[in-house]
Amino acid sequence: MRAAVLDGLIDEFAPMSGGPASSWIGSRRIEVDRFYVAWSPAQLEGIVDKVGGDGGAYVAYLGAVGERARALIARSLSPHKGLIVRFVGETWRYHSWGVVERIARALGVDDPIPVRVMGKEADLKVTTFLPAADLPKVREAVFASGGGRYGLYSRCSFAAAGRGTFYGERGSKPVVGEAGKLEELDEQRLEVKVPQEKLGRVISALRKAHPYEEPVIETYETMSGTEFGEGRMGDLGGALTPQAASRRAASVLRSQPVLSLGREAAESVLIWDGEPADGLHEASVSAVGLYVGPDSKGLARVMARASDVAVLEFPRYCFLLAGARELVHLVRETSKREGWGLRTYLPTRVGGEGVRR
Q1: 217-222 and 123-130 beta bridge pairing
Q2: CB atoms < 10 A from the CB of 336, how many?
Q3: Domains in the chain: how many in total?
Q4: 150 and 271 assigned to the same domain
């Protein structure tokens, strides 16, 4: 498959992450059969060694990298014509599918809000028209691919009956009626809300389930998008001890904390995955009882001298690794659904050279 096809999935995962040509290294017109995620130069080196002279590898790079480092990487990879590297950027962190949002849900925060609001996620309404007998099958396909959710309510949709018309031109093979004849039939109009990042997979699933040769599928943006931004905060829905919070956060990050301060149960939390100093400052001025964030290398202990906020800090790489797993899952599931045959890989260890499927 063409590397450019994967760009669409990256844009779903990290909206607005596209940029100048320097956001990519390599030709986006190459054919690829392997997908890697990395966030360190050492991992890139390991991928290059694994790929060797066999082309056809797409690498999504999630880690922060400056222009000079990017130029060095570009020069070192220029001999590898079958390798493309996409520098994804950080916008994936800020959205509802980001790591901090999932930690908030694991901690029991029903309505987490961004600490620093950056905008609103685009919600789309997807509409199609089909016979009533096919409505349940198509609706379930849309639900299964990510449509129809409003907060804590899922499988939401609306259907209304009406009369549709069509005229099948020469060469058409209508499922209902005949070609070369004006047809009028009873149909259902199905409407489902779909988040921007899931639009591609929903449209693909809808087309596969739809009975018509040329289904009418319309999309338009609504004003109901939720706010996105850096970090999350909210009420825990009851008192939660740092020990219990540690277990729940660890279920998302798949790691134990490197620092745990405080023993008192908290009723509110601030979760951060950006620069540790920024997160600790936000926690100190937000009057929350619990802070969850990346390793600050001792800064949290300094803050604790003048603050009652309980602190849980996890290795910084865990937040990136959790995001990498989410991206690999998105690509892998889409590849299965579309029959691309892509092989997907993650680094075996942080900073390590190996990769695993």
Answers
A1: antiparallel
A2: 11
A3: 3
A4: no
Tell me the CATH number at 169: 3.30.70.120
* SS3 state of residue 345: strand
Do 197 and 69 lie in a common domain? no
Owning domain of residue 31: 3-89+320-356
Structure-block tokens of residue 316: 């910084």
Q: Residues 164-190: pLDDT tens digits? A: 999 999 889 888 888 999 999 999 999
Evaluate if residue 289 carries a pLDDT over 90.
yes
What whole-number percentage of the chain has pLDDT above 90?
A: 56
Model confidence over 194-208: pLDDT tens digits? 987 788 889 989 999
DSSP, collapsed to helix, strand or coil, labels residue 36 as strand
- Residue 343 in 3-state DSSP? strand
286 with 304, same domain? yes
Q: How confident is the model at residue 222 (pLDDT cuts 50, 70, 90)?
A: confident
CATH code: domain of residue 283: 3.40.1390.30
DSSP 29: T
Which residues on adjacent β-strands are paired with residue 113? Answer: 233
State whether 30 and 72 are in the same domain: yes
Per-residue model confidence (pLDDT) at position 14: 86
The pLDDT assigned to 237 comes to 87
φ, ψ of residue 81 to 5 degrees: the values are -70, -20
Domain with residue 9: its CATH number is 3.40.1390
Check whether residue 207 and residue 268 sit in a common domain. no
User: Mapped to the 3 state alphabet, what secondary structure does 50-102 carry?
Assistant: HHCCCCCEEEEECCCCCHHHHHHHHHHHCCCCCEEEEECCCHHHHCCCCHHHH
Place of tokens 């988040």: 195
Average pLDDT over residues 222-228: 76
Q: Kindly state whether residues 218 and 237 are assigned to the same domain.
A: no
**Is 323 in contact with 347 (CB distance < 8 Å)?**
no
